[in-house]
Design goal:
Number of helices: 1
Strand order of the largest sheet: 5-2-8-11
Structural class: mainly beta
CATH class: Mainly Beta
CATH topology: Gamma-B Crystallin, domain 1
Radius of gyration: 24 Å
Length: about 170
């Protein structure tokens, strides 16, 4: 019986196709990244209440037109270590949830960290501090709660924190 040897180019093409097929069927251990507008949408964050602190993309003067919001916002409850987002392994996959402003106006889809102009606190009981750095560090601004029968209290971030906010903590 005569042995037929494949030509060099044909053999290389078959080898490359085989390797590509094997790599394509291998299960990759990759990072999943998701964008959310509330830390309560993150599976491992436990929110015992509705979001209370609203980060607004614009300052108060540029957030409303008549009675309608023209700015985007993100909602948070409790302590938020880093407005950039949070990550955790789910099995062998690293899942990352990035905080972004919702799609309702100016700033839609922008990351929250270092992009807010104002804050609304809608809680009847919880006061907050918003910080310049992650991990509740650096310059901060106190945001008091609303009274029981009032609308959310709304503050422009001070000149140090405007577009430079990174975390929040119960105060």
């Amino acid at each position: 019986m005569k042995c037929i040897r494949p030509r060099g180019r044909v053999f290389a093409a078959v080898l490359a196709a085989t390797v590509t097929a094997l790599l394509a069927t291998a299960a990759p251990a990759y990072a999943g990244t998701f964008k959310v507008t509330s830390n309560c949408d993150v599976p491992w964050v436990s929110c015992s209440d509705e979001p209370e602190l609203w980060e607004m993309y614009n300052s108060k003067a540029y957030s409303l037109s008549g009675d309608s919001y023209v700015t985007s916002w993100a909602e948070f409850w409790g302590d938020v270590y880093d407005y950039d987002g949070t990550s955790e392994y789910q099995g062998s996959t690293l899942e990352t949830y990035r905080y972004v402003f919702n799609g309702n106006g100016n700033g839609s889809g922008q990351y929250v960290k270092n992009n807010a102009g104002s804050i609304q606190n809608c809680s009847e009981v919880n006061n907050y501090r918003v910080y310049f750095n992650s991990d509740y560090a650096g310059h901060s601004q106190y945001i008091p709660h609303r009274d029981a029968y009032a609308d959310c209290v709304w503050y422009d971030l001070d000149s140090t924190l405007k577009n430079n906010e990174a975390s929040q903590h119960f105060a």
